[in-house]
Amino acid sequence: MIKNDIFQQIRNTLLNSVTIPAERLTFFFKTTEGQYGEHDRFIGVTVPVLRKIAQSYYNLSMDNLSRLIASEFNEERFLALIILINKYQKASDNGKKVFYEFYLDNMRYINNWNLVDASAHHIIGAYLWDKEKDYLFNLAKSEILWERRIAIVATWYFIKKNELKTTFEIAKLLLKDKQDLIHKAVGWMLREAGKKDEKQLINFLNKHVLQMPRTTVRYAIERFSLEKRKNYLTNSSFT
User: Fold this and answer.
1) Phi/psi of residue 41, each to 5°?
2) 10: closest CA among 138, 211, 59, 88?
3) Is residue 138 within 8 Å of 174, Cβ to Cβ?
4) Torsion of CA 36, 142, 203, 213, to 10 degrees
5) Residue 210 DSSP one-character state
6) How does pLDDT run along the chain (239 residues), one tens digit per residue?
7) How far is CA 74 from the centre of its chain?
8) Are 157 and 193 in contact (CB under 8 A)?
9) For the chain, what is the total number of helices (H) and then of strands (E)?
10) Domains of the chain
């Protein structure tokens, strides 16, 4: 268990760093009943401030980190993930495995898009870079929205390493997903892949655009010319 004084110190630091009305964040992250973030609560701290605070708690123990990542407040879970990433990036191979497994064990708390997008590629993607990728394909088939988003966002690490195959394969698996947050994430990763190899992106679009949600296409083609964008959007799905 995290010691109350440490936990209270972290909470007080966050409360003293509020610059955004919590109501604004609850609206932005769709926290009303029936929306994807209905479970979430916010304090009102910006990401740059959270990253700075994380530097002060780099030595937080894993037991304490377990308590922090289970917090009801989004910013405290985000803080836990940034600390975890900082630890992972400085760890030995054995240490990296420990932090990767910690991420997997606590994936149920990585349950909003900002948490996924800030961490999946840094932990899951980085760890699986030189290993089998089967786990990502299993996540892509999960019934849990956030696990499917983790699957595609994790491939951002591979994209940065110029390996695009996994991104395109997982994107194909997710083309019929019903969730807008998946449509956006897939389009985003396709766009990132296209920055590395536009020809591969065009080939993917030409094969699948008729089955692709309009949002996915719109995100994927943001860097194309106006004429190309109009052509692909005309042929995309309107779901």
Assistant:
1) -130, 150
2) 59
3) no
4) -30
5) G
6) 445 689 899 999 999 999 998 888 887 888 888 888 888 999 999 999 999 999 999 999 999 999 999 999 999 999 999 999 999 999 999 999 999 999 999 999 999 999 999 999 999 999 999 999 999 999 999 999 999 999 999 999 999 999 999 999 999 999 999 999 999 999 999 999 999 999 999 999 999 999 999 999 999 999 999 999 998 998 776 55
7) 14
8) no
9) 16, 0
10) 1-120 (no CATH), 129-239 (1.25.10.90)
Q: Is 152 within 8 Å of 189 (Cβ atoms)?
A: yes
Q: What is the pLDDT of residue 4?
A: 62
Report in angstroms the alpha-carbon separations of 12 from 9, 20, 84, 105. Answer: 5, 16, 21, 27
Place of tokens 């951002």: 156
Give me 158's structure tokens.
């591979």
Q: Is residue 140 within 8 Å of residue 129, measured between CB atoms?
A: no
Q: Which residues pair with 237 in a beta bridge?
A: 213
Residues 169, 114: Cα–Cα separation, whole Å? 23
Assigned token pair, 150: 């983790």
Taken in order 166, 197, 184, 176, is the CA torsion positive or negative? negative
pLDDT score, position 35: 87
Query: Would you call 41 helix, strand, or coil by DSSP?
Result: strand
